[in-house]
Specification:
oxidoreductase; 20 strands; FAD/NAD-bd_sf; oxidoreductase activity; alpha/beta; 19% strand; Diapolycopene oxygenase; binds flavin-adenine dinucleotide
Length: 504
């Protein structure tokens, strides 16, 4: 078996490490920060506990598969609770709409708001179901870089494949698909927000990504007790049991390539030889900063734009807002204006959507008795030249506080804060070494190619693999975890067969 270096201990890196160790490889994780889990970090202060990054866990089957690799049962490591409602939505006109866990109840709630849209929502979910099925069969669990990797169109062009290709609705965007099915603007705005899980505009992302809605409705929204931080903790424990060597405070500055193969890394200035390397660092920055040369030229010519960034306020309060659900969206007054600002103009939205997590609804221990540990996330553009977030944050914070007191029934919010911390796009950029402060890897814009990301098996360098939110199949907890599994599986296949090691 191979000796493998994993650069970065984010969710993709940890999933790859556990999977490879379960298959008998000798694995070393090299992480520059002094914690493992990357964006899935936590903040504790004065009796409050906050997840700092991801808060919504979907598709737990991906995580289950990583534990199953080692013959373990995920439930021995994680206590997951299914949430209902999945989201509570607050609109500028005062409407409150719950996205219920049960799809029939969700449709009924929508029907109460807008009669014809009960069926419209069901129609949309049928389309999303078909798209999610196509994704499952052609896109997931294998290294994919473009459409050639998904379907062997020349060899398999039969009626079934043709019908799958048609189902992808390549001529349509996410927003276009939603508008065909539901008529009420508030319901449209809610459905458009599924694509915010991957930090892209519904007006520019391909309709195939509507499948995300089905994955959430069908498989649920989950909260791991102890917060999403419990996920990297559980994966690290699994890896330790399997013999993974975790090294924190270790910064990798180079991947050495000899005769087209990755052969070593330079970590804290020391050259360490490995048979194979998995990079959980941002894929663009891996090629640009760690590999360089012809490989970077080969990779870099493709248009690789960062997905959106965001600011997070972590607010410890001396009161609870019982009208909040665990997950809430306080929607912008005008989604077109919001998406144009963030994705086209590259400036903060004038009236943004705020996502609020109130985890004490499920786990009261996250705040002192009677209090609340609120997490408020507002999407912003990825970092643009000249944007200085130390100067921009106060105005954006004021906008958010105003929005929440106006549209989410939190008039006294400012006066109830006893602990306050924040995270800006610049912090995200520096802490996790991502591309332009991106929260969710690379943007998914483009009707035909929008869903494709750099493949997990490098086409440029043999024995180099990519895991994480900026590699296939993309960002978000389940996708980053799957990406780690695919990188590990591709590496294992290459290590255990004599055939060419790189996809042709
Ligand atoms: C504020 C915020 C909210 C989010 N909300 C959600 C949500 O609700 N649901 C959801 O599913 N997803 C959410 N996400 C996205 C999700 O967190 C990410 O997609 C996922 O965690 C990314 O994992 P990753 O494997 O790409 O690794 P990352 O978390 O990006 O970690 C990469 C690691 O590599 C390390 N590293 C990089 N370069 C080097 C180097 N050269 N040497 C050594 N170490 C290096 C970094 O320090 C980092 O620890 C959110 C993210 C953020 C920031």
């Amino acid at each position: 078996m191979s000796s493998v270096a994993i650069i970065g201990g984010g969710l993709g890196g940890l999933a790859a490490a556990a999977t490879l160790a379960a298959r008998g490889h000798d694995v070393t994780v090299l992480e520059k920060n002094n914690w493992l889990g990357g964006k899935a970090a936590e903040l504790k202060e004065d009796g409050f506990r906050f997840d700092m990054g991801p808060t919504i866990l979907t598709m737990p089957r991906v995580l289950e598969r990583v534990f199953a690799e080692a013959g373990r049962d995920m439930s021995d490591y994680l206590d997951l609770r299914r949430l209902d409602p999945q989201w509570r939505c607050f609109y500028d006109d005062g409407t409150v709409l719950d996205l219920r866990n049960d799809p029939k109840e969700a449709a009924r709630e929508i029907g109460k708001l807008s009669a014809g849209d009960e069926q419209g929502f069901q129609r949309f979910m049928e389309v999303a179901d078909r798209l999610s099925d196509v994704s499952d069969r052609f896109f997931f669990w294998k290294s994919v870089e473009d459409i050639r990797d998904t379907m062997n169109l020349k060899a398999n062009m039969n009626l079934t494949t043709l019908s799958d290709v048609m189902a992808l609705r390549m001529h349509r965007t996410v927003a276009g698909q939603i508008k065909r099915d539901v008529k009420d603007k508030r319901v449209q705005q809610m459905l458009e927000h599924f694509i915010q899980y991957i930090g892209s505009s519904p007006l520019a992302s391909p309709a195939v990504l509507c499948g995300i809605a089905q994955m959430q409705q069908d498989e649920g929204v989950w909260y791991p007790m102890g917060g999403t931080r419990a996920v990297p903790t559980a994966l690290t424990r699994l890896g330790e049991e399997l013999g993974v060597d975790y090294r924190t405070g270790v910064d990798v500055s180079k991947i050495e390539v000899e005769n087209g193969h990755a052969v070593a890394v330079v970590a804290n200035g020391e050259r360490l030889r490995f048979d194979k390397v998995v990079s959980n660092m941002d894929s663009v920055r891996t090629y640009r900063e760690l590999v360089g040369g012809k490989a970077w030229q080969g990779f870099g010519y493709k248009n690789r734009e960062a997905a959106c960034s965001g600011i997070v306020l972590y607010l410890g309060l001396d009161r609870a807002y019982e009208h909040l659900a665990h997950h809430n969206f306080v929607f912008s007054r005008d989604p077109a204006e919001e998406f144009k600002a963030i994705y086209d103009d590259g400036v903060p939205a004038p009236d943004p959507t705020a996502y609020i997590a109130a985890p004490s609804r499920t786990e009261p221990g996250v705040a002192p008795a009677g209090g609340e540990a609120l997490y408020i996330l507002v999407h912003t553009p990825h970092l643009r030249p000249g944007q200085d977030w130390s100067q921009m944050l106060p105005a954006e914070r004021a906008k958010i506080m105003d929005k929440l007191s106006r549209a989410a029934g939190m008039e006294d919010l400012q006066d109830r804060i006893v602990v306050e911390r924040s995270l800006t796009p610049q912090d995200i950029h520096d802490r996790y070494r991502v591309l332009d402060g991106a929260i969710y890897g690379l943007v998914s814009h483009g009707r035909v190619n929008g869903a494709f990301k750099p493949g997990n098996r490098s086409r440029e360098v043999r024995d180099l693999y990519l895991a994480g939110g900026s590699a296939h199949p993309g960002a978000g907890m389940p996708m980053a975890l799957m990406s780690g599994w695919i990188a590990a599986d591709s590496l294992h296949q290459d290590a255990t067969r004599n055939a060419p090691m790189v996809a042709e």
